[in-house]
Amino acid sequence: MKRVLFLVLLPVLSSAACDSGPSTSYPAPFDAGGLDAPIAEVTPPAADAATDGGLCSAARAQLVGAVNSVAAGAVTVVSTTAGVTTLYVDATAGGAASAVTNPWLFVDLGTGAKVPVTDTTSVSSTAWDLAFKRPIIYTNSLDGGPGLGGAVMLAKEFAAVTAADATGVTFGTEEFFDAECNAVTDPTGAVLTTFASWYDYDESTHMLTPAAGTWLVKGGTGALYKVRIVTYYGNPDGTAGATGGAYLLDVAAL
Fold this sequence. Notes:
Elements: E1 8-9, H1 57-63, E2 75-81, E3 84-90, E4 105-108, E5 113-114, E6 130-133, E7 136-139, E8 150-154, E9 184-185, E10 199-201, E11 208-210, E12 214-218, E13 224-231, E14 246-253
Antiparallel strand pairs: 1-9, 2-3, 3-14, 4-5, 4-6, 6-7, 8-12, 10-11, 12-13, 13-14
């Protein structure tokens, strides 16, 4: 059963609090045998703040994290057929209970590889396209990073999506804060991103199932891709697994 939650702006930080120390309130998603609770399925609102020039940088470190090490998770190519690459992305981040102490995993969609940047160096790099940690995904744009990225979901089958589908659509960009550095979050307290609606949540099984459709993604350098999230519970060989945060993605350049 799909659950729709409403966006709330939680004033976890005021402009005067942007220079405070690290927070311990960043919530780990619910996990039961590798299963995660849902992120709000809403469209992020327009916001005025950005991290450029250090504005809201301390608030960003509290909300998103600032672990200065490269993620241990692997990003590997499972297969490539007719221009479509299936990627395995290990964004398990040590399990939901310790996600807050683990860095984000940054992925180059063009090469199908992990980009060796950290939470702190990613904000000055355009080499990555998507960041992953457990069920949260964000693009290299605005509060997410310095790139030309963005994302929009199309109600269209992956195989049928072409570059022409990008004409006239509005790509969402990452706007994690309002003008006073207050975090834009979902009801669990997690950062609200452009990918907030990527899955449906089953309340009886606590399983996350990718929502139907295809994502158009602009990478850090502006390159255009189509992306389909095949599963949140994958194995490196492309088979189904049981651990949450182990993505299988279909990716093709447009």
